[in-house]
Amino acid sequence: MNVLVTGAYGRCGTAIIDYLHGLSDYHFTFLNRSDRPADHRYGEFDTYVADITNYEAIRPVFDGQDAVVHLAAYPYVDGDWTDVFEPNVTGMYNVLEATREAEIESFVFGSTNHVQGMYEEEYAPELYQTDYPLRIDHTDPVRPDSFYGATKSFGEDLGRYYVESNEWPTRFYALRICSVLGDGSDTPYAPAEERVESGDLSRDSEEYQQLVMRMKAMWQSRRDFAHLIDCCLSDNDVTYGIFNGVSDNDRRWFSIQNVRNRLGYRPQDNGEECDRPSTPADDGQS
230: domain CATH number? Predict the structure, then answer.
């Protein structure tokens, strides 16, 4: 299968590289708005350099692809409308339109938990406890917590419009990704530890404990994220689906029942059990 990955060198894109690139089932093409130097960890891969806001620049790389994994976006919840509009609205339209014109069957969209982020705003910090009685799934109302979350909700709706109103793509998977961390930081403790190292936080503080509890709920390990992508790319049944991207964490408030049932997602990791990075080497992969 020929797979185009946009935003390939972000945290999610590099998880795909680390865990799926070497598999014989896939031939990946990476689209990114910048390349990596030859001595960089990801510098060995050929990169199609273009910005998704420029349709004419990105259109040629879609020819000959069987699937698109669309991860390129402005990803920050503190962004204003000017920050998010071009990459997340215009860019989403451009990538979908190129997919349609190139007659590509499968579209995997990197959406976000922030599409329903106001649930956390309402119920935190009690929500971070293991016994808090809330499980959010794809049937619960959309409640964006930011312009970023709202644009990702728009992307989900635009994807539904495309699969129901056009011949291509034939399948659309919206992944409401929770928290995928970078290579070398793949542990629920990493964000809090980074603040300790910067002198911004102490380990014995309540804020540190809340950050760790939250991440133990929201964490999706890099290998679980790559496995979820593999589940989408291997599927032939879904026309349109919304799926939560999170590991099998005891504290999670995002349900994974739907993605288990429809895509066969079987996460290996649980934030409650992890206190160090999980790397491809741990799994015998290169």
Answer: 3.40.50.720
Dihedral pair phi/psi, residue 47, rounded to 5°: -125, 130
196 lies in a domain?
no
Grouped pLDDT means (10 residues each) for the chain, 286 residues: 97 97 95 89 90 98 98 97 98 98 98 98 96 96 98 98 98 98 94 94 94 97 98 98 98 98 98 68 51
Q: Residue 221: what residue type?
A: S
**Residue of 42, 148, 162, 265 marked catalytic:** 148
> Does the annotation mark 148 as catalytic?
yes
Whether the model clears a pTM of 0.90, i.e. scores above it, the answer is yes
State how many domains the chain has: 1
Q: What is the predicted pLDDT for the residue at 280?
A: 54
Q: Are 219 and 246 in contact (CB under 8 A)?
A: yes
Residue 64 located in a structural domain: yes
Name the residue range of residue 91's domain.
Answer: 2-183+220-271
User: Is residue 24 included in any domain, yes or no?
Assistant: yes
Q: How far is CA 258 from CA 136, 233, 244, in A?
A: 11, 17, 8
Q: How far lies 89's CA from each of 12, 92, 158, 242, in Å? A: 20, 5, 10, 19
Q: Is residue 18 part of a domain?
A: yes
Q: Which two tokens stand for residue 168?
A: 């291509």
Tell me the C-alpha distance between 116 and 98, whole Å: 28
Nearest Cα to Cα of residue 259 among 270, 275, 248: 248
